[in-house]
Amino acid sequence: TETQTKSRSVNYVGTGIKKFPVPEDMASWGITWPEYKPVYYEAPEVKANPSWADHIDLLELSPKKRLNKIKFNAYDESCKYNRTSYLGEYQIIDGIPRNPMGRTGMIGRGLLGRWGPNQAGDPIVTRWKRNANGQKILDNGKYVFEFIAIIRSDNKLCSLPGGMVDPGQNVYECLKAEFKEEALGGLMDNEEHKKKIKDKLKIMFEEGELIFKGYADDPRNTDNAWLETLVYNYHDNTGEVLHPFQIQNQGLRAGESVDAVTWLTARANMTLHAAHAYFVKLVADKLNAAF
Ligand code: RP5
Ligand code: MG
Ligand code: MG
Questions:
Q1: What is the rounded CA–CA span in Å between residue 57 and residue 140?
Q2: Rounded to whole angstroms, how far apart are CA atoms 224 and 106?
Q3: Could you tell me if 49 and 55 are in contact, meaning their C-beta atoms sit under 8 angstroms apart?
Q4: Does 178 contact ligand 1 (Cβ within 6 A)?
Q5: Greater pLDDT, 53 or 2
């Protein structure tokens, strides 16, 4: 199972901020820990009230004023955002949501826009790795597979082409939109490509399978804001469906916030952004593939 490893990292990603160190055995809220002094942080870009964030800093208000400001554990009609958690009902302490997976060393939203769950979607698009003759490659009696990975501009890590659910969007729309933006970004300016892509995406998302939905161990998580994701796999068994996207490696093109796109061989020892290596492992298990 996934742990809070990245959520508890002391250096808060991309900011130079040091969080209060939380050893693994102190993470649970069930353990009384009077010395716990989490660091407060809300990034300037969150404070600037962009469309993807809640326009309120709950910690600046008195506990009384905070109450019922945001509709937690429900669909929030006022901003068309789903604030329910895949983990069930999360606790609200003095009007502030509490990370159901335990302490992180930071309060406030950090780099995240929403108080409570921040919903994301992660598409894992896979195919069998083949040699120059088109034959599948075996490793210890199991076939090797590849998935579409991006290199993120923010932390330069390999990652799934996933992203956050926008207001009014459902998670399946988000999956499709993120895959288009991040993996096929550069292709979308051409009408002929657009039509082809639309047809392929339709097949991919009708035939894909749910891999995981739940907490995402992301380094941006705090005690009051955390990522949750729905992971969806489309496996192109014949390699034919995605074929037009591979002409001389021109098929995949980086979108915004993405430095590069590529087919990456799935391996147990690879380093990926957030909990993505765990999600790819789940796909390896499902495909009974080499990993
Ligand atoms: C990860 O962050 C999720 O699994 C998802 O891939 C991603 C969403 O954040 P952005 O890509 O929008 O930064 O934890
Ligand atoms: Mg993204
Ligand atoms: Mg999005």
A1: 53
A2: 8
A3: yes
A4: no
A5: 53
% of residues, the chain, pLDDT over 70: 94
Determine whether 233 is exposed, middle or buried from the number of CB atoms within 10 Å of its CB (0-12, 13-18, 19+): buried
178 Cα to the center of ligand 2, angstroms: 7
* DSSP state at residue 243: G
Does domain 119-287 sit in CATH 3.40.50.720?
A: no
Computed over every residue of the chain, the mean pLDDT equals 92
Task: Name the packing angle between helices 171-178 and 191-207 (round to 10°).
Answer: 140
The full set of domain ranges for the chain reads 11-116, 119-287
pLDDT value, residue 251: 59
Q: Which residue has its alpha carbon closest to ligand 1 atom 7? A: 163
175 Cβ below 6 A of ligand 1: no
Contact yes or no for 141/291 (Cβ under 8 A) = no
ipTM: 0.97
Scored b (16 or more CB within 10 A) or e, 64-86 reads eebeeebebbeebeeeebbbbbe
Closest C-alpha to ligand 1, atom 6: 162
Q: Write a three-state SS string for 160-181.
A: CCCEECCCCCCHHHHHHHHHHH
Indicate if ligand 1 lies below 6 Å from the C-beta of 163.
yes
Residues within 5 A (CB) of ion ligand 3? 163-164, 166
Residue with tokens 């999360």: 90
Ligand 1 and 164: CB distance under 6 A: yes
Predicted confidence band of residue 244 (pLDDT cuts 50, 70, 90): low
Q: Is 149 in the pocket of ligand 1 (CB under 6 A)?
A: no
Q: How many CB atoms within 10 Å of residue 156?
A: 11
Q: Is 214 helix (H, G, I), strand (E, B) or coil?
A: strand
